[in-house]
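We modelled the chain as a single entity of 281 amino acids. Its sequence is:
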Amino acid sequence: MENSFGSLLETAKTVLILLPTKPYLDQIAAALSLYLSLKGVKEVSISCPSQMLVEFNRLVGVNKISPDLGNKNLTIKFSGYNASDIERVSYDIENGEFRLTVIPKPGLSSPQKDQINIGYSGISADMIVLIGGGNETHFPAISTKDLLAVKIVHIGTKAISLPGREIMSFVRPASSTSEIVAGLINESGLVLDPDIATNLLIGIEESSHDFKGPEVTAETFQIVADLMKAGGRRGLNQRMNRKVFPKGAIPGEDLKIEEIEKKETPKEWLAPKIYKGTSIS
């Protein structure tokens, strides 16, 4: 199919995956899974304008999410070093390796190692994949000059509004964005290893409220079965709460439980409620 996700990937050399501001666990799980499945196949990077929360650390590859977009040009900056102390800069190539030499003026010292800052600038991407979100305010990066003419693909459970931009949408009702990404990975013949499958299972379980959500269908369970066959592990989305800890692990917890158990439920709470009104609307 001409507009299938796989065909769009075939035309792209570099892919930039963008998460919205303050993303949900499901969205991060979906984005990371797509990133990991494309790694080694495409030049791919993943970015989010918001910091990652501690609870997201159980997702494989979360350390690959960067707040910075620049990946086109390597930049070297000397922090705290007087640029006027440099006489000249030269470079050469030895045994296929590039070497940059910074030569200070006579009598002056060279930049120290702790003064060297290496980074990137400029954005290089043939295709942007937006995960979730609802409008352009959720993705401030897409208004960047380098991305104004780049093809945009959107994946999520709800449509996005981007006035003036053409979008290839892969939005459909589903239990989660992770469920949609799992389907796209399968349709496109991308890699699905145990780490990717586990991320997707975490996202599906979290967003579907352990498969109790109204959007859960037979297809959801089929996808879950396929992910488990691929080596995905379930049950890793358990939140850190009091129920996770064994009895007695929290100081004073036993006393609080005993006090609660001793309290009787007021009888009036159990009586049927009768509501009276003066008009019918």
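As a brief sanity check on the tokenised model: Strands lie at 14-18, 43-47, 73-78, 86-94, 97-104, 116-121, 127-131, 151-156, 167-171. The first strand starts at residue 14 and ends at 18.
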